[in-house]
Amino acid sequence: MAKSDNPFRWFDSSPEVIRLVVMMYVKYPLSLRNVEDLLHERGIDVCHETVRLWWNRFGPMFAAEIRRKRVQRMRQHTHWKWHLDEVYVKINGEMHYLWRAVDHEGEVLESYVTKTRDKAAALSFIKRALKRHGSPRRITTDGLRSYKAAMTEIGNAEKQEIGRWANNRAENSHQPFRRRERAMLRFRQMKSLQKFASVHASVHNHFNQERHLTDRETYKANRSAALAEWQTLMA
Fold it and tell me: Which pTM was predicted?
């Protein structure tokens, strides 16, 4: 990488420390000051405002690189089945909605924030997911009528599936984000919610090894591979 293309060139800290800080803040349900304290125990003196600056600057860069690599690698894999769901998020006392598209193995494909959950919002969300990931064979949703209206408009109505407990995959995908939201004491702007939800989804995908489905040795190998790939981001 040329020096002029190096995103770390204006910072005195090493890229390894910056990657560690961003990973700790986004991956784990920690506050800015929690990250500062944990780094202090490791002999790294970083202010909590520096943690905020680094995650805001580098988080989207790391997420974009992870997403680019995974989209290329998983394009055929994600065409089988999607699960769509929305969850409410309060911003300054007003209700907003975080929409998610998840594949059949729990990979978060798309995160999208809107003020409403009507047909227009569902249509915008589905078009965004289709543009980036292509068209799946089946789409599982809950009983929200906005999904059916949106998919009828784009000609995907025959792909929709609705059933009791059929969408648990998407509903379970909200849990890591909810834990993270509580640690951050909620969000204050719609823009910051969209930004963090997108970054968090990519980082969660990268480190999610589904340890309950594999033996200990396989899990350890996959975990080490994910960490090694993380340490080379933007290298």
Answer: 0.86
